[in-house]
Each structure stands twice: as C-alpha cells, then as structure tokens.
Design a protein that fits this description.
The complex is a heterodimer of chains A (about 260) and B (about 250). Chain A is α/β, with parallel strands linked by helices and about 260 residues long. Chain A contains nine helices and nine strands. In chain A, strand 6, helix 6 and strand 7 form a beta-alpha-beta unit. Chain B has one domain. Chain B starts with a helix and ends with a helix. The chains are: A alpha/beta (about 260), B mainly alpha (about 250). Chains A and B meet through helix 2 and helix 3 of A and helix 1 and helix 5 of B. The structure holds adenosine-5'-triphosphate (ATP) and magnesium ion.
Amino acid sequence: MPLLKVTGLSKVFQLGRNKTVTALNNVNFEVEDGEIFGILGPNGSGKTTCLKLLLGILFPTEGSISIMGKNQFDVEAKSRIGFLPENPYYYEYLCGTEVLNFYGRLFGMPKGLIKERTEYLLKLVNLQDAGKLALRHYSKGMLERIGLASSLINDPKILILDEPTTGLDPIGCKETRDLLVRLKEMGKTILLSSHFLSEVERVCSRIAIFHRGNLLTTGSLSSLLNQYGADNLEDLFVKSIEKYDVELESGKPVAATD
Amino acid sequence: MGKMWVIATNTFREALRKKTLYILLVVALVAIGTSRFFSFLAAQDELKMIKDVSFATIEFFGAILAIFTAMGGVSGEIEKKTIYTLLAKPITRKNFIIGKFLGQSMVILLNAILISLFFIGLLISKKAVPDMEIYKSLLLIYIELLMIGAISLAVATFATDAFNIILSFFLFITGNLSVYFKQVIERTENIIFKGLGYMLYNIIPNYENFNIRDQVVVGVNVSWQYVGQTILYGVMYIVIAVLVGIYFFQKREV
Ligand SMILES: Nc1ncnc2c1ncn2[C@@H]1O[C@H](COP(=O)(O)OP(=O)(O)OP(=O)(O)O)[C@@H](O)[C@H]1O
Ligand SMILES: [Mg+2]
C-alpha cells in the first residue's frame, strides 16, 4: 500500500460571483514509503495548493487523499507529518527554542523529549547560537532554517517541504540537501516542492511535473528523460510543458493519470 | 484539554509580549487615578466618582482589549499565515478555537483584575473598604468582557477585521442601551416592526444586564439571584458564540 495516495484531486477557487480559478485539476499520484518525491512546475502551477490540500489546510473541490490509510484531517495521521510552508511564517515574538517547544507540545510530546529534540535540531540547522533570539530578529535564511527544524520536531514519518531552500545561502542549500538524503536513509518519506532543478535531480527518487493545475507526468528521472527524449531535467521540464501547451492549443491535452 | 491549553498559553504569552495590553493598562490607571479630579469639576462626592469612573474604565478598556485580542487571535494567525503551521499539526479546528477563547479570556481577565486591584486599592486608601456589592459589579463586568471577546472571536472566523470592529462596537453600544431599545419597541405600533424589534432585542447581547453600578454607586443592594441569572445568561451567550466560531472555522479556508 502506498504511504500517500491522491485520487482525482481538484481544487477550484471561487474568486468572485462568476469567476473561478482551477488551481488543481483531477490530479492522481502515489508516494511510496521511503522515497523523496519531487514536485516541479512553473509559478502558479498548483504545487502549493496540492501540498495545502494534503495537510487539510484547504478543502478539496473533488477527490480524496489517503495518508497512511487515513484521511488528511485525521489527527493521528497528522501527528506523523512534518510540514514546512512555502514562506516561513512564524511567531515573531517567540525565540527559536520557544517555537520548537510550542510545536512539540502541539504534538503532545513529553517535556524531556522536546528539550532533547530542540537542542539536537538547533544544532542540525546551525542555529545553536540563535536559540534565544526572537524570530523577528532572524534573517530570511535563518527563518527558513528554524522552519525546517520545527518541521522535524516530531521526528515525522512523512515530511512535506514547500521550497525549503528558497532564501538559503549555497552552504545552507547543500546542507539541506545532505540532510534530506540522510533523512531518507533514516526511512523518512519526503515530498519536496522546489524550483531548483539540480537539487531535485540530486535527491529525488521520483518526480512529478505540474502545469496549469494538471499533473503532466510522474516517474523516475531516467524514465521521464526517456519518455520525453530529454537530455537533462531542465530540458525535460521545458519539453513537457511545451508539449502540453501545444496540445492545449490544438485542443486535446492529455494529462498523466499516474 | 492538553492541546487547547497549549494554544491558550501561547495566545496569552503573545499578548503579554505585545504593547497593547500595557498601553491600555496605563491609560486605564491614569483615568482612575485622576477621577478625583473630575469629582472636583463635577462637584460630586469623590468616592462616588471614583466608583463611577472605575467601573466605566474597566468595562470600556476591557472591551477594547477583548475585541482586539479576539480579533488578533484568529485573523492575526491567518494574516501572518502562522495558521498554516498550526492546521498541519494534530489539533482539530474545534480545539484551536476553544484554545483561542481560553487564551484571550486569560488576557481579558488579567487586564480587568489588575485595573480592579488598583481601584480597590484606591478605595482602601480613602478608608472606604469595598463591600460585596462592588465585587458583584466587578464580577458581572468580567463576564460581560468574556462575552464581548467570545463574540469578536466568532465574528473573526468568517468576517474581515473592519467588519468585526464595527459590529463589535455596534453591539457594545446597542447592548448597553438595550433598555431604551426595548422601550422603543414597546411603543411601536406596526406588528411587523415590533416582531422584528423583539427578535433583534433578543439576539443582541444584553450588556445592560451586567451593569449594576448605578445601584452600587448609590448603595442599593442587588440580589445574588440576579447576579447568578445574569452570569448564566452570559455563559450561555459565550457557549453559543464559541460554537458559532467553531462552526465557521471548520468551513474556513485560510
Ligand atoms: N487562496 C486562493 N484563492 C484564489 N486563488 C488561489 C489561491 N491560492 C492559490 N490560488 C491560485 O491557484 C493557482 C496555483 O497556485 P499555487 O500557489 O498552488 O502555485 P505554485 O505552483 O505553488 O506556485 P509557486 O511556484 O509560485 O509557488 C494560482 O493561479 C493561484 O493564483
Ligand atoms: Mg508555491
């Protein structure tokens, strides 16, 4: 059984009386236990919408989501998920240690364990000196780091990361990449949305490409390169999107159904 | 209870670290501290004036704090998008709203009790030992403030801040004038307007019920039965408001 299964997922936003935006259109995919699943797509293609639906932050217009056999609102399923939102939004009046403590308590973790994890995670993301600093004094990259640390507080089975390296310096990017690989080795399953193709290329076992709310294709990098006759991930990205747009103009777009 | 309490204490901590609470406190204390000066102007009994001004101050500044704390609690989290991280955690939306209510109530009570202590201290310094009637009046004001907060919390789950502020203050004013409103309805001839009027009268929170300070200031006793009934009314109103908040928040996309 896949760890995560998305079936016929659509999301239509109502903008005005007669105006709607289809952010996600009949999306189907599965994520297996232990893989790093890369989510690619141009700006506005529906990546963030998809992740928010997985977390029960948004409600699907159609379709269903199964996470470890439970639905996305299930408290038990959620206790095994770690989430880093697109831009790190945090409580600016709390300091780094307090944020981790707050989230740890929301997971119902015992005090001692929270303390232990906090020390470990602050060191892991190189913020051991900023633990007592209020988040409003953090830099953009530091916020991204504390966000990553707090997504790991509960030692999650599934990690959902929406552009975790945006705003990080090159060393931070590399450290995050290494961390993802290490987490995968520890048996975690990771969903990673990213615009950094080299990052995705290096860490992801499978890739999904979104465009205009449609899931164009999913598969391992090598199989997709083959399928589209592409040389590298960038080439694949461009080709898959061009192919869809051409088909759209000729009136017969076909999206992958996994 | 556990996770609601985590939300509650975090809400409380946020309020303690913001300036709003302290500014309101200082202004309220200054108002009470200078009330004897007003009595001088109004040529009124100083103690009476201190009581009058203090009750009004606790209610008015408490209401402002209640409205803004409740609003900031929900729409602040939505605006700053911290809500994304919360909703991804194993906490239900219901418990989030109840936690917010508990947290804001702690803030509201802390503020009201601090001002009350100052007020009571002032009375004692004037050798006027406060009697039970004063505590009854304070107790009713506290319940009223919790009610104001609960209503703003409920409104914040489905409406904008601007609408919330306007509605909350509108209810605060009309709720305090409900006696006059009732008189107007009673004099209305048109049966439809009369019916609508009564409906509105029953929906609008009857804050006037919580105001026994006129009696307290002139030394008329208010029965415990009345106090109990009014508290019961307030608690019922709070429960309904929180339920409304839960209902809308469960459907809300952030
Ligand atoms: N709350 C909302 N209300 C209305 N439209 C929305 C809302 N959220 C997203 N959209 C629309 O849905 C589409 C997909 O947005 P989404 O944020 O999922 O894109 P994305 O792939 O994450 O883009 P990016 O790479 O820029 O992060 C966009 O057209 C966006 O305007
Ligand atoms: Mg996005």
